[in-house]
Automatic annotation (TrEMBL):
GO terms for molecular function: acetyl-CoA carboxylase activity; ATP binding; carboxyl- or carbamoyltransferase activity; zinc ion binding. In the C-terminal section; belongs to the AccA family. Acetyl-CoA carboxylase is a heterotetramer composed of biotin carboxyl carrier protein (AccB), biotin carboxylase (AccC) and two subunits of ACCase subunit beta/alpha. Its EC number is 2.1.3.15. It catalyses: N(6)-carboxybiotinyl-L-lysyl-[protein] + acetyl-CoA = N(6)-biotinyl-L-lysyl-[protein] + malonyl-CoA. Pathway: Lipid metabolism; malonyl-CoA biosynthesis; malonyl-CoA from acetyl-CoA: step 1/1. It comes from the Bacteria. It holds the Pfam family ACCA. Residues 224-468 form the CoA carboxyltransferase C-terminal domain. One of its GO terms (biological process) is fatty acid biosynthetic process. This is Acetyl-coenzyme A carboxylase carboxyl transferase subunits beta/alpha. It comes from Streptomyces fuscichromogenes. It is found in: Cytoplasm. Component of the acetyl coenzyme A carboxylase (ACC) complex. Biotin carboxylase (BC) catalyzes the carboxylation of biotin on its carrier protein (BCCP) and then the CO(2) group is transferred by the transcarboxylase to acetyl-CoA to form malonyl-CoA.
Length: 468
């Protein structure tokens, strides 16, 4: 195959098929490439010791365009991988659909998507590395449905290539639009990976190579070694909100040994494939020190990456750990227009439908529906310095009394401290803020959580609150 494989990958079987386009439109000047010169080539490779299907779409071969032959090869590769129980890796640079084959070329988009869906439904992983350019119908079909995606730094990435954009809109896209960097910022790819690291990254995605530990930005709070006691509920709340307290990102770094980022467009929620004591887990962590719209307040995009991560866990049969710390979802007009309420609902639905065990650890402030979106889990744990409330007491005071100064009284009335919530049956366990103890409790919960207990706990707590 034209794209050489480095030490990490060895071709076991080149899936040569002799296919060649029949020039279905009799397009003037179109000379269909020989089978060996087609844009897409496929093979079975040994990737760091794991049998893996490889799809290579190369701009250097007929512009990387997808016509009937390319589409058929992609479909066959996914179906072969499904029958073999093998992951699929894609290396791609493409100009999109092959115009000289007209609508027959465009039909390859739904065909390849369907083949990718069959592979995904079998619980198998796929990953893609996007080189420059990756555009059009190839980007808008099977490539964008791979489970994780990386892009070459500086690559042109977009549905419409720059020349198409200029023709349609009258101007070329302005920087940084249509770049790998823009795609990463908007959660369209999960990492920027240099071509020399392509195969190492692909091997790590499919689990053939170890991941790196989660890196926390310099200057962030340290994970505490103990809990502080507060005299009043409001003092407890202020302690929970203290600037020195770690958030979900810090706890994710201390609880996991390794991490592979599942990128999103709003950093108030981070997600990743992690390992804890050698066992893989999907982690979704709220970060109250970051945010796209308002610091610590997740917007629609934050919940979308959570949903993506939870669905991936269900597909791969992995448990889910969520780490909650937010004053609440962002209620700003931009967030409302983006459908934040619907995204919270869909996040709850993704947890409700999750076929694998799930555990939530409240590490800071659990604020209203924006926090409960990640707390509908089989086991719900709280640090003893955390809180969980139907609404922030300041906002609640404004609603109930039109007087925010009554927040301290309402903090007590809401019974939002861990011990009180344990009595109400809202949570399962309260933990001291000790890393060793927390890690032991989380590991035990992930190992023993019963799928479906998430609904039972809520039903029991509700039943206790009812009178005949």
């Amino acid at each position: 195959m034209a794209t050489d494989t480095p030490d990490e990958a060895t071709v076991l079987e080149a899936w040569e098929d002799g296919l060649r386009s029949a020039d279905p439109l009799r397009f003037r000047g179109y000379v269909p490439p020989e089978s060996t010169e087609e844009s897409v080539r496929t093979a079975l490779v040994n990737l760091a010791g794991m049998k893996t299907a490889w799809i290579d779409c190369d701009f250097g071969r007929y512009g990387g365009t997808m016509g009937c032959v390319a589409g058929e090869r992609v479909v066959r590769a996914f179906d072969r991988a499904t029958s073999l129980g093998a992951p699929v890796v894609v290396t791609v640079s493409s100009g999109g659909a092959r115009l000289q084959e007209g609508m027959l070329a465009l039909l390859q988009m739904p065909r390849t998507v369907a083949a990718q869906a069959r592979h995904s439904s079998a619980g198998l992983l796929s990953a893609a590395h996007l080189r420059s350019p990756t555009t059009g119908g190839v980007f808008a079909s099977f490539v964008s449905l791979t489970d994780l995606r990386a892009a070459e730094p500086g690559a042109t990435i977009g549905f419409g290539g720059p020349r198409v954009v200029a023709q349609v809109t009258g101007a070329y896209p302005s920087p940084p639009s249509h770049t790998a960097e823009s795609a990463l910022r908007h959660g369209l790819v999960d990492a920027l990976v240099r071509p020399t690291r392509t195969w190492a990254w692909l091997a790590s995605v499919i689990g053939a190579r170890p991941w790196e530990p989660l890196a926390v930005p310099h200057g962030r709070p340290a994970v505490p070694g103990g809990s502080s006691r507060c005299d009043t509920p409001y003092e407890h709340l202020l302690h929970t909100r203290s600037a020195w307290r770690p958030s979900g990102l810090e706890w994710a770094a201390r609880l996991t040994d390794t991490w592979l980022e599942i990128a999103g467009a709003d950093p108030s929620v981070r997600a990743g494939l992690g390992t804890i004591d050698g066992h893989r887990v999907v982690v979704v962590a709220m970060d109250r020190y970051a945010g796209r719209m308002r610091t610590g307040a997740p917007g629609p995009a934050a919940y979308r990456v959570a949903q993506r991560a939870i669905r991936l866990a269900g597909k791969l049969g992995l448990p889910v750990l969520t780490l909650v710390d937010t004053p609440g979802a962002d209620p700003a007009p931009e967030s409302e227009a983006g459908g934040v309420a619907g995204e919270i609902a869909r996040t709850l639905l993704s947890l409700a439908e999750l076929p694998t065990p799930s555990v939530c650890l409240v590490v800071g402030e659990g604020g209203s529906g924006g926090a409960v979106a990640l707390a509908h889990t089989d086991r719900l744990l709280m640090l003893d310095g955390s809180v969980f409330s139907v609404i922030g007491p300041e906002a609640g005071s404004a609603v109930l009394y039109r007087d925010a100064t009554r927040a301290p009284d309402l903090t007590s009335a809401f019974r939002m401290r861990p011990a009180e919530l344990l009595t109400l049956g809202v949570v399962d366990q309260v933990l001291p803020e000790n890393v060793t103890a927390v890690r032991t409790a989380v590991t035990d919960a992930l190992s023993h959580a019963r799928v479906g207990a998430r609904g039972d706990r809520a039903a029991r707590a509700t039943a206790k609150a009812l009178t005949d």
